[in-house]
Design goal:
about 450 residues; mainly alpha; Cyclin A, domain 1
Amino acid sequence: MPVTRPKKTTAAAGSKIPKPAKVGSENQEEGPQVKRSSSPPHGAPKKRTAFIDITNAVGPSLTDAGVVSGTESREAETLWRRPRAQAHKVQISIPGRKKEAVKKPVKKISAASVPTKNRDNLKKSLPVTSDGPKAERETVDEEEERAASAPGEEPATSAPPAVREVPAHLRKPDIPPEFDIDSENCDDCYLCPEYAKEIFDYLKQREEKFVLADYMHMQPSLNAEMRAILVDWLVEVQENFELFHETLYLAVKMTDHYLSKTPVDREMLQLVGSTAMLIASKFEERSPPCMEDFLYICDDAYRREELISTEASMLQTLVFDINIPIPYRFLRRYAKCVKAGMDTLTLARYYCEMSLMDMELVPERGSLLASACLLMALLTKDLGGWTPILQFHSGYQKSDLAPVIRKLHAALSAPPDDKLKAIRNKYSHKVFFEVATLPLVDLEVLEEALSH
């Protein structure tokens, strides 16, 4: 018998084998109508303001009405996962219908017709367009400008805030034109012409924190002559290493402050001076000498560990506050007030440097000492006395300078010591205009200048 082949099994009538649908295909047959909920799909981020127009356009209203196919519904759902910039460019095409504008016209509201308190609410309540929040802000700003420029209408504006008075310590000092010495340097940012007066006023106030007294009664092993020998040696160190003058003055100041609080044996006095010069070099110099250089100038009398230990002890004793106002800075400032020449300034510097060795001048403030040295230099050069511009910038009168000038004149007129020759030899050089060889002004001339 012939073998009958079994018939091929076919799908039931009206049924079709489902095929994977391509997202975005307009020729795809409509699938089952799936109602889209107002909440974002599972795993999608929360709604953002920029998607309000798009989600409302393809939201439940169109899907529930049976206009949007399943494919287009899935296509709209992909907008949740697209970047914000791309979401503005997506256009949803509906078969059999013309493309309609998704954006709704924004009704312009005049800002002048809204009270001032409700303007913020107006900005928030305006519908957000597909251009984003930036377009919203521009619309509101344009309406406010039109309302402000509209004739016959006075927009409701808030009263201007009351101007607060600047505190006294923050006010810029009023400098009379005849006393202005910084405007000529307005193009030099390194001289800080806008803040020069405030800087030196601050340094002058800061001096009160570093006022010293005669501390030799606290040093049983030292005396004023030993201190003068140490300062004379520090001047030689400053010359050999070619350090700044500010480094020398700061080293002497730190030495005095350290000796006023810590007893030191005479064998360790040179180590204290070397350590002070090392710290001052780190603070003032661009390229400070290394530690081995300071051990070498001490003739290897101290070890490296001793120098490091003394440095730590000095910094802790001074509480790391080593920005001490020195007379050298004030001297250059005051010499600029009278436009003193370099030879006159160098003579004043010689007097100021000689004052470092005198123990009686240690308690004097740096600004007062600099003023006395400059006045002595001006009288020696017969360039006048204490002028109003010097009184304005220094804050001192002649009566304030008289006691310091008398002490300084007595120290300079004393017979020279053969052991203390470093400063005199230094300022006897042609580089320093040989100011150490100039005769000292008479005391009678000083008294006459101070009395007038």
